[in-house]
Automatic annotation (TrEMBL):
This is Protein kinase domain-containing protein. PANTHER family: OS08G0249100 PROTEIN (PTHR47987), PROTEIN KINASE DOMAIN-CONTAINING PROTEIN (PTHR47987:SF2). Pfam families: Pkinase. InterPro entries: Kinase-like_dom_sf, Prot_kinase_dom, Protein_kinase_ATP_BS, RBK1/2/STUNTED, Ser/Thr_kinase_AS. It comes from Vicia faba (Broad bean). Keywords: ATP-binding, Kinase, Nucleotide-binding, Transferase. ATP binds at residue 387. Residues 359-636 form the Protein kinase domain. SUPFAM superfamilies: Protein kinase-like (PK-like).
Length: 705
C-alpha cells in the first residue's frame, strides 16, 4: 500500500477522462483540488476507473494505452504547479464496474484524508457528483473529508474530523529547492515500494503500459490497479529529463529554474518529512555543513542537569556550565548576542514563558508557515509579540538573517525587534506588539472591524508601506530586498500606522537595480513577480511587484489568490488587470465600503498599483517614485498617467496578437500571472522614463495626454 509520508495527507481525486471533451472535466477537477485542498507535503492521487468492458477503443487501439497517453498530456501541465506547491501527484488507473465502490476501496487503501469527486460537464442527470459524494461520505471513515465538485464549485462537502482542513493558498510560502528534493525523495520511495504494479511513463508511452497487465478482473476485490504514473518525474533519466536539460539550456519561460533544480537533484533521495520531533538546535547540529567545534567559554554552555545548550550571558549573569568542554554548536549562533547586544536583548526562555503565561493558547495571535506568534507582556508592562520558529532546513539562517537585518533598520514603518532567545530547543524572536494585527487579518479576516478600516486608513497603510520599502531600497550603500512583501507581513498599530515585518527571507544587495539570481526562490503565492518566480532573478523590483498586489488588496478587499472566485478570477492580478485597463474603477473598489472616498487618493493608489504590477521589471518604477505617486506629486502623477496610457495601448496590441492559451498558460496566468514577456519588453521600449519625461525628450507624450 502506498501512503503519504507520516504527517502528510493523501487526497484522492476521482478523475474521468472524457475523450470528446478535450479532457476539461479531468483538468477542472484536478485544478480545483490543487487550488482548494492540496497543501505542501500532500500526496494527490488522481484515480481513474476504467470500466471492465472497455478494452479497445473505437479505432481498435488499447483503451488503456490511449488513456495513459491522454492523462500524460493533461497531467504534465501540472508539473510546475505541483513542484511549487510541494505536492506529489500520481495517476492511478483501476478497472471495475462500480466507480463509487472502487473510489471507496482506494480511499481506504490510501488512508485518504480527502476524497474529491466530480461530474462531467453538461451531465444532465441530477447532480451525479453529489450522489457519489454522499456515498463516499457514508462509506468512508468520519476522519475523511469528502467533496463533490460540479462546474468548479463544491456542491457537496462532508467535513472530516481530522483537523487538517483545506489549503489556504494565501499562506503557502513556496521554497523551490526544498520542494524538489522532497518530491524526488518521496517519488522514488513510492515507486520502489510499489514497483511490482507500477508502470513508469516513458516518453513514447509504449513501455508505460504493459498490455498484459490489464487483461482481466471482473470484481472490485481483484487487484486491478493498472498504472501508477508519477507525473514527469523519472528516476531512470528518461527523455523527460533530457527535455528538462534542453529547456534549462534555452532558458525559456515556463519552469526553467525548477527544471535546473530537477536535473541537478535527480539522484538525491531525501527523507524530508514534516517537522522533525527534535529540537531546533539538535536538528541544526545534525546538518554537516552547519557544525562548528567551539570552545563554549563565551556564549553557549551545556546545562549540566538537562544537557541542553544554553546561552551564557555575562550581563544577565546566567548559567556558566561547570563542564567546560568543547561542544558542537551551530556556527550561525556563535557570537550572536555579543554582536547585537547594543541593539536588542537576549531573553531567557523562562522570561518569555512568563510573559506569555506559558504560551497560553489564548495568547496565540497568529500562525505563519514556519512560526507561531504569541502575545506577551514583559514585567515592565511592555507588550510584545513572541515568535517561535519551527524547525526547518533554513531556520537558523532565517533567524540570524532576521536579527542581522532588522537591527540595522530604523524606520517608523518597519517593525522593531525587542530581542531574541536561543535556548534549549528554542529559537524565538521578540517584537513590539501591534494591536491591530496584520493587514491580512484586517482586510480578509474579521469583517466586523471593516467599518473602522475605511478608505482613509487604507490610504495611510499604502503610504506607510511604500515609505518602508523606499527606505529599504535606498538605505545607504546596502539595499535590502524584503522578498516576502504581503498583507500578512504588514502589521497595524492602534491608529493604523503600518509596519513591515518578517525579514527572514530578506537579502542584502549591493545596489537596488542590479540583479542577483537566487536558487532558493521563496515567497508567497500571489505576490511573486514573474521574473523571480521563473528565473530566480532578484532585485528591488520584486518588492515593487508584491507591493502592487498589496495595493490591489487594499483597493478591492480581495485576496491575492482565492478559489472562492469564478474561474479565471482566482488571481487578483489577473482579475484586476483588465479592470485597471478599462478604467472602470467602480468594479475594482471594495464593495463592502461606502463610496465616499477621496477620489484623488484612490486615483493615486490605482496609478501606483498599475505601475507596480507591470510584468517587465524594468517597467516598474522604483519605490521612491511610487511613494511620490501616492503622495500626489504633480509632476510624477502626470508622468504616471502617460506611462499607463502607453501601457494600455501596448496591451491592446498584445491581445490582438495572441488570443489563445493552453492549459499550462491558463494555470500560470490564473495562479501566478506568469506569461510570455514579449509584451512587457515591448512596453519597456515604448515607454518613457521619468528622467526623459522631465527633460522633455519624449516626443509622443501629447498623444497620450
Ligand atoms: N508584532 C506583532 N504584533 C501583532 N501581531 C503579530 C506580530 N507579529 C506577528 N503577528 C501576527 O502573527 C501572524 C503570523 O506572523 P508570521 O510572521 O509568523 O507569519 P506570516 O507572515 O503570516 O506567514 P509566513 O511566516 O509564512 O510568511 C501575523 O500575520 C500577525 O497576525
Amino acid at each position: 500500500m502506498i501512503t503519504a509520508s507520516s504527517g502528510s495527507r493523501t487526497v484522492v481525486v476521482g478523475v474521468k477522462m472524457e475523450e470528446q471533451e478535450s479532457h476539461t472535466h479531468c483538468s477542472e477537477l484536478l485544478t480545483w483540488s490543487l487550488v482548494n485542498v492540496a497543501q505542501p507535503g500532500d500526496l494527490i492521487v488522481a484515480l481513474h476507473v476504467l470500466p471492465n468492458h472497455e478494452t479497445v477503443n473505437r479505432d481498435g487501439k488499447s483503451s488503456l494505452f490511449s488513456l495513459v497517453k491522454a492523462f500524460d498530456s493533461v497531467l504534465s501541465g501540472y508539473e510546475g504547479f505541483c513542484n511549487l506547491k510541494q505536492v506529489d501527484l500520481k495517476l492511478k488507473i483501476c478497472r471495475g464496474s462500480s466507480v463509487r465502490r472502487i473510489l471507496v476501496r482506494e480511499a481506504n487503501e490510501y488512508r485518504a484524508t480527502h476524497v474529491i469527486v466530480g461530474a462531467p460537464r453538461g451531465f444532465s442527470k441530477i447532480r451525479p457528483s453529489i450522489s457519489i459524494g454522499r456515498y463516499c461520505a457514508k462509506k468512508l471513515s468520519k476522519d475523511c473529508w469528502v467533496f463533490a465538485v460540479d462546474n468548479g464549485k463544491a456542491v457537496f462537502k462532508r467535513d472530516g474530523l481530522s483537523s487538517t482542513n483545506c489549503a489556504d493558498l494565501k499562506g503557502s510560502r513556496v521554497g523551490l529547492l526544498g520542494s524538489i528534493q522532497w518530491k524526488f525523495g518521496k517519488s522514488s520511495k513510492v515507486l520502489n515500494d510499489d514497483i511490482q504494479d507500477s508502470i513508469l511513463l516513458d516518453s513514447s508511452c509504449h513501455k508505460a503500459v504493459d498490455q498484459e497487465s490489464y487483461s482481466g478482473g471482473d470484481g472490485e476485490n481483484e487487484k486491478n490497479s493498472l498504472a501508477m504514473v508519477p507525473v514527469k518525474v523519472n528516476d531512470a533519466g528518461s527523455s523527460v529529463k533530457a527535455l528538462y536539460d534542453r529547456e534549462v539550456a534555452n532558458l525559456k519561460p515556463g519552469w526553467p529554474l525548477l527544471h535546473s533544480r530537477i536535473s541537478s537533484s535527480d539522484r538525491r533521495v531525501s527523507e524530508r518529512s514534516s517537522f522533525p520531533r527534535i529540537s531546533v538546535v539538535q536538528w541544526a547540529m545534525q546538518l554537516p555543513s552547519r557544525n562548528l567545534s567551539y570552545d563554549k567559554d563565551r556564549f553557549l554552555g551545556l546545562d549540566s542537569k538537562s544537557g541542553a545548550l544554553v546561552p551564557v550571558d555575562a550581563e544577565i549573569g546566567t548559567i556558566a556550565s561547570p563542564e567546560r568542554k568543547s561542544i558542537n554548536i551551530p556556527k550561525e549562533l556563535v557570537g550572536l548576542h555579543e554582536k547585537y547586544s547594543s541593539s536588542c536583548r537576549l531573553f531567557k526562555y523562562q522570561e518569555l514563558v512568563s510573559a506569555t503565561s506559558n504560551f497560553l493558547p489564548e495568547n496565540l495571535i497568529g500562525k505563519g508557515g514556519s512560526s507561531e506568534v504569541y502575545r506577551g507582556c514583559l514585567p515592565d508592562g511592555k507588550e510584545v509579540a513572541v515568535k517561535i520558529l519551527k524547525p526547518s532546513e533554513d531556520v537558523l539562517k532565517e533567524f540570524v538573517l532576521e536579527i542581522e537585518i532588522i537591527t540595522t533598520l530604523h524606520h517608523i514603518n518597519i517593525i522593531s525587534l525587542v530581542g531574541f532567545c536561543f535556548e534549549d530547543d528554542n529559537l524565538l524572536l521578540v517584537y513590539d506588539f501591534l494591536s491591530r494585527g496584520s493587514l491580512e487579518h484586517n482586510l480578509h479576516g474579521n469583517k466586523k472591524n471593516l467599518h473602522e478600516f475605511g478608505w482613509t486608513e487604507r490610504y495611510k497603510v499604502a503610504l506607510g508601506v511604500a515609505k518602508a520599502l523606499e527606505y529599504l531600497h535606498n538605505n545607504g550603500d546596502k539595499t535590502v530586498i524584503h522578498r516576502d512583501v504581503k498583507s500578512s507581513n504588514v502589521l497595524l498599530s492602534e491608529d493604523f500606522e503600518p509596519q513591515l515585518s518578517d525579514f527572514g527571507l530578506a537579502k542584502w544587495a549591493s545596489s537596488s537595480s542590479s540583479y542577483t539570481t537566487c536558487t532558493d526562490v521563496a515567497g508567497t503565492f500571489g505576490y511573486l513577480a514573474p521574473e523571480y518566480f521563473m528565473y530566480g532573478k532578484v532585485n528591488d523590483k520584486i518588492d515593487v511587484y508584491a507591493f502592487g498586489v498589496v495595493l490591489l488588496e487594499l483597493l478591492s478587499g480581495r485576496k491575492p489568490i482565492s478559489g472562492d472566485y469564478p474561474k479565471g478570477q482566482e488571481s487578483l492580478v489577473m482579475w484586476a488587470s483588465p479592470i485597471l485597463n478599462s478604467g472602470k474603477l467602480s468594479q475594482l473598489l471594495d464593495p463592502s465600503l461606502a463610496d465616499n472616498y477621496d477620489h484623488e487618493k484612490i486615483e493615486r493608489m490605482v496609478l501606483a498599483a498599475t505601475l507596480c504590477i507591470r510584468r517587465a521589471p524594468g517597467a516598474r518604477p522604483q519605490m521612491s517614485l511610487i511613494s511620490k505617486v501616492l503622495k500626489g506629486d504633480a509632476v510624477v502623477m502626470k508622468w504616471a498617467r502617460i506611462e499607463i496610457n502607453a501601457l494600455k495601448a501596448s496591451e491592446l496590441l498584445d491581445e490582438e496578437a495572441s488570443p489563445t492559451s493552453n492549459l499550462q498558460s491558463h494555470l500560470n496566468l490564473a495562479l501566478l500571472d506568469v506569461e510570455d514577456d514579449t509584451l512587457s519588453l515591448w512596453s519597456v521600449d515604448q515607454n518613457v522614463s521619468l528622467e526623459d519625461y522631465l527633460r522633455g525628450r519624449w516626443s509622443r507624450s501629447s498623444s497620450f495626454d
